[in-house]
Fold:
Amino acid sequence: GNDGTNTLAHITNDGAGYYSFTLTAANVNRLGRMKLAFVGAAHGTVFHEIEVVPAMVYDSQVLGTDVLQSDLTQVEGVALSTGPIPTFGIKLRGTAQGGAAGNITLPAAASATDDYYKGDTVLLIGGTGAGQTASVTAYNGTTKVATITPNWLIASPDNTTTLIVIHGVSGLSQSEVTAAMVPALLNTASTDYQAAGSVGLKLHGLGDGIGANVDSVLTDTGTTLDGKLDTLLGADTTYKKNVAVAAFGFYMRDADGAPVTGATVNGFISKDGGAYAALATAAATEIGSTHGAYKNDIAQAEMNADEILLVFTATGAVPTRFKIRTQS
Structure:
């Protein structure tokens, strides 16, 4: 019982009748089903069928040491050789050639067909502007320039930006929103999202209306609400009447909301509706040198009132105001 190159080895005993048979690499140098025939003078012919599979299949399905490879040849009848083909939704992966606020130049390997990526989504996954996403509204197959909406918020892509183009997907999941995108979104001018009939336009109008109404009741402050919510919300009502306050802290900002540092800050106080007067400690002390934070002491006599108004002024800064209702 052999094929001329293999020798049977008796592995148990004559009573059990079990034998082992070694197949060499040459014996299995083919794929598919194989039938082995074992012939002996003292017994009938014994047949045994086996299936020879690629090493990758055996390693993945039997040993668990590999994964199966799947080679895409066509999608929806379109051959791979005709152009970029979606693989699990990804139509293109690579490094951008450049970009601007409202577009991106896709890799040289991108499709040469106009509007091939129209309606798809570009996701910036590395380099300049990483973490942003936008929908393609038009594509020039010659220049490789994809026009996108909305415009890039953090930074426009350049030739260091890596990207993927996803087939027919728009928007971000919660997990895809990065920390860097949040302040960029909050600091974007609302005028960028005021197309006729849009939700952005309605929200913008609502915000303007609220701001105007609040501004109308703040005429005594000499300023408006816009950009100064941190000041208005900074009032602390837990101070004790007739008890000095050490290191009363506050921030100084310019008209754009940026910190004002290194300034000479003067403080003024009004008690129970009286005229403003300079604080006993007139000049505030800066806390650090980068955040626009300052502190000022308020004397016991200055805290001897039921309602106290404080204002801090500096050149180049918007006046910072506080209203304190003391507690007995």
